[in-house]
Write a structure and sequence with these properties.
alpha/beta, Rossmann fold, 2 domains, 7-stranded mixed β-sheet, 4-stranded parallel β-sheet, 11 strands, 43% helix, binds adenosine-5'-triphosphate, binds 6-O-phosphono-beta-D-fructofuranose, binds magnesium ion, fructose-6-phosphate binding, ATP-dependent 6-phosphofructokinase, PKF_sf, ATP_PFK_prok-type, identical protein binding
């Protein structure tokens, strides 16, 4: 193993820089030349890369975003472009590649592995929607950002005796919504997995108002429905003044938390060790606090349901 590449792909996530740093430093520590591809798979297609050294990853462990930039590379859905990427990688002299990204990025890595370039996936996405791992890089920071914002909304909700309907990210997964709902004392969370009808939400808010509560937080996972429409329905059917807030991309930025920095560092280190052991077509995962690895296709077939015990607990004490 003489030369390995690293790239970030899909949506950015706080902690990706810490993962890049770990890959680069682990490679250097083991006598391997690391190179960083720019803008995800585009970097391989366009041979757009930087030779990485200790200096290039200095002072980045604490910063959000990704120094390698990221992208959704549409060409990669086509076999001919993936073959071109494989040939470029061979011309560059690449012996392996670490792909930091979500489930989509894993698929790209799976194809490159099949073509003969050893690839290891590292889970980097705020959504925590990768079934093979309990934890994805950026998830903790994103949730802490949500909590900070909803705490502020809660202050003004209390003053005005209002209901705040807050849309959070997560693509099709409600993990962010559920955990931030618990952490902010929300009266209701609505996700694609638990698509509570609006009339049930209204009834729940009314029932909770009868218990004496006069301000309400409802967390809606993106993909479920329009939060403005939900707020309007709550206001019309309960008489409670309601407002909608879409938190949006603020959830993707900011300095990574300790948890994200430590996990990103562990996962980046582990990925390079897998390449050194001659492994390919694997993804790094965290299971019960330990790092493990899975075959990419097996990992992509796994399911990660929402934690219904957590949901039921939240609803039982949401009054
Ligand atoms: N089926 C696929 N075949 C080949 N490449 C793919 C495939 N799916 C995704 N990719 C590559 O991975 C990139 C990122 O995928 P996607 O947009 O699904 O994000 P992700 O990696 O799941 O991250 P996130 O969901 O956090 O944004 C795509 O733009 C494409 O370059
Ligand atoms: O940055 P974009 O392309 O708007 O994508 C937004 C999507 O990316 C994520 O932030 C990360 O996958 C999702 O939560 C969201 O649905
Ligand atoms: Mg994804």
């Amino acid at each position: 193993m003489k030369k390995i590449g690293v790239l970030t792909s899909g949506g950015d996530a706080p902690g990706m820089n810490a993962a890049i740093r770990a890959v680069v430093k682990t490679a250097i520590a083991n006598g391997i030349q690391p190179i960083g591809f720019i803008k995800g798979y585009n970097g391989i297609l366009e041979k757009n890369y930087h030779v990485m050294d200790r200096e290039s990853v200095s002072g980045i462990i604490h910063s959000g975003g990704t120094i390698l930039k990221t992208a959704r590379c549409m060409e990669f859905y086509e076999a001919s472009y993936r073959e071109k990427a494989f040939h470029n990688a061979k011309e560059i002299g690449l012996d392996g590649l670490v792909v930091i990204g979500g489930d989509g990025s894993y698929r790209g890595a799976g194809y490159l592995s099949e073509l003969g370039l050893p690839c290891i996936g590292v889970p980097g996405t705020i959504d925590n929607d990768i079934a093979s791992t309990e934890y994805t890089i950026g998830y903790d920071t994103a949730m802490n950002t949500v909590v900070e914002c909803v705490d502020k909304l809660n202050d003004t909700c209390q003053s005005h005796e209002r209901c705040s309907v807050v849309e959070v990210m997560g693509r099709h997964a409600g993990h962010i919504a559920l955990n931030t709902g618990i952490a902010t004392g929300a009266v209701q969370i609505i996700t694609e997995e638990i698509p509570t009808p609006i009339d049930d939400v209204v009834e729940n808010v009314k029932k909770i108002r009868e218990s004496g509560k006069d301000h309400f937080i409802v967390i809606v996972s993106e993909g479920y429905g329009n939060p403005v429409e939900i707020a309007t329905q709550i206001q019309e059917k309960t008489g409670i003044d309601s407002r909608a807030t879409i938190l949006g991309h603020v959830q993707r930025g900011g300095n990574p938390t300790l948890k994200d920095r430590v996990n990103a560092t562990r996962m980046g280190y582990y990925a390079v060790k897998l390449l050194e052991e001659g492994k390919t077509n694997r993804v790094v995962a965290l299971q019960q606090g330990n790092l493990v690895d899975y075959d990419i296709q097996e990992a992509l077939k796994m399911k990660k349901p929402l934690d219904m015990d957590l949901y039921n607990m939240m609803m039982e004490i949401s009054f």
